[in-house]
Amino acid sequence: MCVAACTATEQILDLRLTLCYLGVPLGGPSSMFGDNKSVVNMVSVPHSKLHKRHNALSCHRTREAVAAGITQFHHIVGTTNPADILSKHWGHLSIWETLRPLLFWRGDPKATPTT
């Protein structure tokens, strides 16, 4: 998971740099979400101990981006994670509250988002 967080951080940094080159103003840090609480804590808490060398090497870039305020890493519970709907076997009733807003989005698609 630490390697995935490092890969996501590199992609975020690349996309932010590209947007800056195009003149797009960036407002605040980018958010990353993970369902592995230990990895989120390992990356987000500066004084947490890195137990394995390969994790330490992968996590430094992500820790650096969090410390610089470029990204924020948040924990999301696995039962409410929309990405888990397709990767695990769930019963219909257990995922319906997460799945319904994705399938039946209500709103005006022409409306501009308010900032």
Describe it for me?
With 115 residues, the chain is mainly alpha-helical. Helices cover 51% and strands 9% of the residues. It has 2 domains: 2-75, no CATH class; 81-106, no CATH class. Helix 1 packs parallel to helix 3. The mean pLDDT is 79.
Give a quick rundown of the structure.
The chain is mostly helical and 115 residues long. It has helices at residues 2-21, 37-44, 53-67, 84-87, 92-103; strands at 30-34, 71-75. The mean pLDDT is 79.
Low-confidence stretches are: none
Summarize model confidence as the mean pLDDT.
79
Beginning-to-end CA distance, first to last residue: 33 Å
Largest sheet: 2 strands, parallel
What's the Cα radius of gyration?
17 Å
Q: How would you spell out the order of helices and strands?
A: HEHHEHH
- Silhouette: flat
Which structural class is indicated by helix and strand composition? mainly alpha
User: Spatial order of the strands in the main sheet?
Assistant: 1-2
- Tell me the total number of β-strands: 2
Per-chain topology:
Layout: H1 2-21, E1 30-34, H2 37-44, H3 53-67, E2 71-75, H4 84-87, H5 92-103
Parallel strand pairs: 1-2
Helix pairs in contact: 1-3
Key features of this structure:
115 residues; mainly alpha; two-stranded parallel ribbon; 5 helices; 2 strands; 51% helix; flat
